[in-house]
Design brief:
This protein has 532 residues and is an alpha/beta fold. The chain is built from 23 helices and nine strands. It has a five-stranded mixed sheet, with helices on one face.
């Protein structure tokens, strides 16, 4: 026996869906055990130092000016620091709130040309793994993708309407996008617009195109001009030569990495997108719809342009996912086979997750940060979700919502349960209680997280420096790997613990787990205290 839930355009369904999904996004958002990317701590440190120094022009890292990235993301975080205080929670909340606002704006714009409501398009965006991953960690990928994508969409809107207000909006969005990762966003957007005009042979629009360029470049160049004026060749050499042109001389990565990134971040919508795009090309209908042609061109340019640098990374495929979703939003794709695929993926993932939780409950060492009650609550949600697949019928939007809930539970909540703390509670409590003038040296890849846990300043040092410090008296405490350390005349070990090794490949992890070699996946850390 089955029953039908409300359609996606029901207000009741809309509110219930969004509230529950937002709850899952926000739950433990400030927890360090949540999955994060390696460079998140780097950006968090820059944001923290800019705020503490009240530097609204120059990014700082470990006390020195650092020009690897422009400052827009750090500017947008500042109001949240003023309201909630500086910290990991405030930084990640800024990403989530602004990302949701940008997706809502995009959904509203696309709904004008779609049979889907704004809510349906919103769910399309957040159902992809790219948005699930980057919309609640302090990385630049969500902002880079959305500012550039929606700015390009408004440029198309400007070509269609010739409205000055749309020109200003598009220009400001694209100018802002260049202050996230650099001028590459403007290059991608303008290259897409130019290709569209060439294919459409719209000579009358080239005047509007060049007007757009001027309106973008003026606000986009202000920060670069200010930094060049203040720091001269130091800024130019670092930002343009090392960080941007350096991508052409760095270690070469295969273009296959971009394919993997596109499939991963656009999943599961990349599947119906490929089918619809193929059908539109084969049936010669693609060129009959200006908007779909424009989105297809943008998708191609935004993805292919990253093949040219030598330094390719899977996250460079993220901006192209914006146009994968947008293309689907203006297409009709409520295919029965795709609904069945989503059902299969959700049931399979839920079953795997249930097995993982049972494993976690049996082996309690995987529960350093979360309680047993949390496990049972997540388990209840997963079992309920599976039951709904068998006893309900609904639209593809409903199924994507259930899939999103399942993915969120697995990625941000179940994965977090298996995290080992950077610093155990007894060590943290001891260091929090010591005098504020106590010097603490830390060997850790991203020292921001250690400082955040302790709620105080620490001094990042390298492993060789830490080894030398064991025979000196410059620090009161040292937190460092225990490997290769025997004894020290000046320091004693107060505590030791294990953390997961970083940089391991999935194959290595699976192989060691299958062969019961857990120690191969862990690294021993210790707290050293200077002898009195």
């Amino acid at each position: 026996m089955t029953f039908t839930l409300p359609k996606y355009d029901s207000k009741t369904w809309s509110y219930i869906t969004l509230i529950f999904i937002f709850f899952l996004f926000l739950f433990h958002i400030g927890d360090q055990s949540s999955p994060r990317q390696g460079t998140e701590g780097f950006y968090l440190q820059i944001s923290k130092e800019m705020f503490s120094k009240k530097s609204y022009l120059i990014p700082y890292y470990l006390g020195e000016p650092h020009f690897s990235k422009p400052p827009l993301q750090f500017w947008l975080t500042t109001p949240f620091y003023f309201i909630f205080g500086e910290g990991l929670w405030s930084a990640r909340i800024s990403i989530f709130v602004i990302t949701c606002c940008l997706i809502a704006c995009t959904s509203k714009l696309l709904s004008r040309s779609s049979s889907l409501t704004s809510l349906g398009i919103f769910i399309l965006f957040i159902s992809t793994f790219g948005m699930i991953k980057y919309s609640r960690i302090y990385m630049m990928d969500a902002f880079f993708t959305l500012f550039t994508g929606i700015g390009t969409l408004f440029a198309y809107e400007y070509f269609s309407t010739k409205k000055f207000s749309i020109l200003i909006l598009s220009s400001l969005l694209l100018a802002a996008s260049s202050l996230i990762k650099g001028p590459i966003s403007i290059i991608m957007a303008l290259a897409s617009l130019f290709a569209f005009l060439l294919i459409r042979r719209e000579r009358s629009l080239f005047k509007a195109f060049f007007r757009l360029i001027i309106f973008i470049i003026i606000p986009a160049s202000l920060w670069y001009i200010a930094c060049s004026y203040k720091f001269g060749s130091q800024f130019f050499d670092y930002f343009f030569i090392r960080e941007n042109l350096g991508k052409f001389t760095a270690r070469t990565y295969s273009p296959l990495v971009l394919v993997q990134g596109l499939f991963l971040f656009s999943f599961p919508l990349i599947i119906p997108f490929a089918v619809i795009l193929y059908r539109d090309i084969k049936s010669h209908t693609l060129f009959k719809n200006d908007l779909k042609l424009f989105l297809a061109i943008c998708f191609s340019v935004f993805w292919i342009i990253w093949i040219f640098p030598a330094q390719r990374s899977h996250h460079y495929a993220m901006p192209a996912t914006f146009f994968v979703i947008s293309y689907l939003a203006v297409s009709s794709f409520d295919f029965p086979w795709f609904t069945k695929l989503i059902n299969f993926l959700s049931i399979s993932l839920s079953t795997l997750a249930i097995g993982t939780i049972i494993f976690i409950l049996v082996y309690q060492q995987f529960l350093p940060m979360f309680s047993t009650i949390t496990c049972y609550v997540v388990l209840l949600f997963l079992i309920t979700n599976i039951c709904l697949y068998f006893i309900t019928t609904g639209t593809i939007t409903l199924r994507l919502t259930q899939y999103t809930i399942t993915t969120l539970l697995i990625w941000y909540h179940i994965a977090s349960m298996m995290a080992l703390p950077i610093i155990p509670n007894q060590v943290r409590e001891h260091l929090v209680s010591v005098d504020s003038h106590t010097r603490i040296g830390v060997v850790y890849r991203k020292p921001y997280f250690v400082s955040e846990l302790l709620g105080r300043s620490i001094e990042p040092i390298s492993q060789p420096q830490a080894d030398q410090e064991l025979v000196s008296n410059n620090y009161d405490y040292l937190i460092m790997p225990l490997s290769a350390i025997s004894t020290s005349a000046n320091f004693q070990i107060m505590n030791s613990w294990y953390i997961w090794k970083r940089g391991l490949r999935i194959g290595q992890i699976i192989d060691n787990l299958m062969n019961n070699k857990l120690a191969e996946l862990q690294e021993s850390y210790a707290l050293f205290r200077r002898k009195q």
